[in-house]
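Much of our argument rests on the idea that a fold can be written as discrete symbols. This step matters because it turns folding into a mapping between discrete strings. The record that follows shows the chain in one-letter code together with its fold in token form.
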Amino acid sequence: MSGNGLIHSIRRLLNTEEQLRRPSPFNELRQQMSDVLGDGGILKELVQAGDGPPVPYNASVLMHYSGYLEYSNVPFETNTYQRFPKIMKLGRDVTLTGLEMGLLTMKKGEFSRFLFEPQYAYGDLGCPPLIPAFSVVLYEVHILDFLDSGQVDDFTAMSQDEQNTAPLSNLLEVVNTVRSFGNRCFNQSRYHDAKDHYKEAVALLGNREKQSDVEREKLNKALLPLYLNLSVTELQP
């Protein structure tokens, strides 16, 4: 072997040994992350702080997210290409345990990174062919906005009799939240979804047994903007 060949082999060996001593990408991330639950299963790095209260349980969230495997710069799932991502409800649309628990620590406008151990991600089996078994995954999440839909869920779970005897103020708050969902969808050009939310709000008001002229007036006042919203959605292509 020539002198140059020997030097090249030695350098390659030294580089290999240096790479073996260097922490893996995820281990480097771990050094700057906080432990969300205290068991090391969900680690978080706050990249950009948000404002206001954290995301509540049962919220509906508007967010951009991307999931990565270690040593890969290409996400195995992402919605960042969508200008207006679909609203996702915790407990229903967000099915990854670690992601749901991580969202509960976030605020509006926040951007954070999370490392999820397999028990909080895709488990021992993974999700072939994209996610190998026992995979630790990285998620980057940006909360664009959220709505607390827990009150809507509680109200719609009531019987009709219970809804009728609930304070009118509760009904009007629920209707306002449902209309807000419709407005978000309309602003995202998702007109069919917006129409469904507006119709749900109209039905909630229409099902109410009117107790007095004052209550009837309040219900009619709440119906007017919903009918206007529905009219505008009908004009959309």
Summary: Helices lie at 3-21, 25-30, 97-103, 150-156, 160-165, 168-187, 191-206, 213-234.
